[in-house]
Amino acid sequence: MLALSLRLYFENPVGRILEHPDGYALVQYKADPRQLDHLQAFLTHAGRLLQLRSWHRLLGDQRLMAPFNDDERSWITDYWLDRKANEAHALYGAVLLPHDVFARLSVSQIMQEAKAASHDVSAISGAG
């Protein structure tokens, strides 16, 4: 069996963004605490990768992630998701949910806010 060749696109203290050969961005969050400006840069680069490759699919691996704080949740829903929703093509995303229950709750809150704002967001639970 051949190993998939994932190409690193961007990395900072928040996590890594990888280019998957099947045509989607793999966004892997680290367990470390975040700063808002690092998260903003991280997700901005994820958006740039999608735009650069004309991709419309993203897999967020949040299994190790710490909970989002209020400022992060607000920025994600009010800026990043809203900006992606207003682009010409739909963004299809799936999330491997965090192991940490509080992180799962913060992701769930973002998903509820996104659905209320008519963004299509899906999640799957991570195994392991």
UniProtKB/TrEMBL annotation:
Protein name, UniProt field: Uncharacterized protein
